[in-house]
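Re: Re: token formats

Sure, here are both.
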Amino acid sequence: MSIKRPTFDERVRGGLYGVAVGDALGATVEFMDQRAIQKKYGQLKDIVGGGWLNLCPGEWTDDTEMMLAVAEGIIADPDDPVPHIGQAFRRWQATNPPDIGNTIRAVFRIWDRDNLTHEQWHIAAERAHRELGGMSAGNGALMRTLPVGIAYRLIPDVYCQAIDIARMTHWDIKAGLTCAVYSLAVRNILNGTADRFMAIVEAIKLVQEITQEAYREELREIAESPINRDRSNLKPTGYTIDSFLCATWSVIEADGFKDAVVRAVNLGGDADTIGAIAGGLAGVYWGYKAIPKRWIKKFSPEQCVMLDQIVEGLVELARRQS
């Protein structure tokens, strides 16, 4: 009997909800190491809240909030999304969220200090990069990049928008390149690539073909990452390439959506972000119906409405682009 593949709409909904459940599951064990997780939970499989942020079960963090902001900005103006994404970022910041990443916090501070506009996010990011001593290759751009691979259909558009949106806050090109690979992998799956490993490998090849020679060395570390499938090499840090490797390993080795996200968050470390990255990719691959219903039920009706509205907007935009 043939297995019915998820529809385009189901994959998009799976991706958005996948980010949210991966985030909500992983937030419980963020900053814990694997030994501590095993001692307390055995293996974390349910969304129970808590963690260092003391979240309620089903609460998500900056990973999902910023992903929704990116989607909102793209839907508002796919040709020039950065100013709209920036406005959404600032609306989120105004809610006084419990956690904002250090790089993003630095960009917000510089944006205010230097009286910049929503057309000048890249100026703020470059200045933050310098003030942080060149340390802006965190995973805070990768965690929010899923909508790029859904909304844009042409390879150059996916590549350029992924890097452009990443560099609103994370100026280091490695952050942008990991976002480009991830977004193109999402695009490949939505376009029919049936093998998740090949979807990532083909995305890397596309980025290698497009990326200018000056960035070849930065790209090499990314290009080798999903091919090395030895768990002992995984480092669940906030470095964008480490997070990319952890997330892609979790998806490639998994038996299904649940297994992928459980693998990801139980690596510990920056578990909410790695869970969100893995959940987005796994959700696009296996589709919405593969997400455990008990996880989705942890979300409030308001959260689900928010996600569903963004799903509808992205699906409509993607169809106009095709």
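Second one below.
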Amino acid sequence: MNQPASIPDPVMGDENRQALRKSVKMRAHLRDRGQTRFEIEVTDLSMSGFRAETSFTLWPGTAVWLTIPGLAPLEAVVAWRDKFKYGCAFAKPLHPAVFDHIIALSQR
């Protein structure tokens, strides 16, 4: 019997992971092409992107690199901006293991 669409099916595994969005609270760094590096707070993470807050001004369309301690920089593009909140889309979706690792780091 199929479950209603509003209830995620834990047995589905990776097929539904793309939509999985986790609320997190972790400090990280963002760097733009001009090599400006600044601190951000990542507040939300999915395999396709993240939401962050920073007082630094970024514009939609800007290429950035997210640096989380212990991981290689992750390339992304600023998708939207609302005052000090930003939504960024990864250039390549995160591998499920990398996604899980970042979530685990955020819970320390």
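Confidence is low (pLDDT under 50) at residues 1-18. Helices lie at 96-106.
- S.
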